[in-house]
Amino acid sequence: MSTIVRPSEEPSGRRRDVLRVLKAAPGPVSIIAIADELGVHPNTVRFHLDTLVSDGRVERVEPDHKRPGRPPLMFRATRQMDPGGPRHYRLLAEILTMSLAAGRDPRAKAQAAGRAWGRRLESRATHGKEMGAKESIDHLVGVLDELGFAPERRESGEEQQIGLRHCPFLELAETRASVVCPIHLGLMQGALESWESPVAVDRLDAFVEPDLCLVHLTLEGATR
């Protein structure tokens, strides 16, 4: 399974905006129309539509072949019951992180778990194509944005970096940094490995500033 959002969870960030536009539309909507409505590039919309379709929240609509020219891909929100009821995922996360932290070498185990999950994240978005350094970093930033890290590209001399301005697991990271931060590191490493990217994550410095964690990237045999 390679999706970020589970069917029982609400989408977040830009993906939620795409879904909102589709739900508000009286009929099927094209990628260009969604991009115009949100003021973003069509590739960004396409990136999020792929997951929404896989999650069953959005469906493709057969184009009208009666019109001249090549018809655009059309999408509409899937009609379904909104998942309801209380969720207690933080409690589950606390239980699991506490258990992992109590074991032997929790940092290595957490990083390995993050790397295993990262290898499954958005792997279909590459469509088997080789990704260059810039494209890899852009795609990683997109994935981190979807996960709620509020990422920003940075440079320090010749080094490429990604700043993380938000931690979606902040309360756990403050008390279980030895588990949560290695999971984040492994997740990024695994994702880049699955894309066969020329970019690798060298290290993750947590809370270098009160509102900033810093990802250090290594470019292997590639120019920016």
Describe this structure as you would to a colleague.
- It holds the Pfam family HTH_20.
- Residues 59-81 are annotated as: Disordered.
- This is Transcriptional regulator.
- By secondary structure, the chain is of the alpha+beta class.
- The protein has 2 domains: 12-77, Orthogonal Bundle (Arc Repressor Mutant, subunit A); 106-219, Muramoyl-pentapeptide Carboxypeptidase, domain 2, CATH 3.30.1380.20.
- It is built from 8 helices and 7 strands.
- The protein has helices at residues 13-24, 31-38, 42-55, 89-101, 106-118, 133-147, 170-175, 177-194; strands at 29-30, 58-61, 74-77, 151-156, 159-164, 199-209, 212-219.
- The strands form 2 sheets. It has a 4-stranded antiparallel β-sheet with strand order 4-5-7-6, covered by helices on one side. A 3-stranded antiparallel β-sheet has the order 1-3-2.
- A hairpin with a 2-residue loop joins strand 4 and strand 5.
- The model is unreliable at 1-8 (pLDDT under 50).
Name of the top-level CATH class of the largest domain: Alpha Beta
Identify the CATH homologous superfamily of the largest domain: Trafficking protein particle complex subunit 3
User: Into how many domains do the coordinates divide?
Assistant: 2
Order of helices and strands: HEHHEEHHHEEHHEE
The rounded Rg comes to 19 Å
Determine the structural class based on helices, strands and strand pairing. alpha+beta
What is the share of helical residues? 40-55%
Stretches with pLDDT under 50, minimum 5 residues: 1-8
Q: Based on CA inertia axes, which overall geometry fits?
A: globular
Mean pLDDT: 85
Q: How many angstroms does the end-to-end distance come to?
A: 31 Å
Estimate what percentage of residues fall within beta strands. 15-25%
Largest sheet: 4 strands, antiparallel
InterPro entries: WH-like_DNA-bd_sf (IPR036388), WH_DNA-bd_sf (IPR036390)
Pfam families: HTH_20 (PF12840)
Protein name: Transcriptional regulator
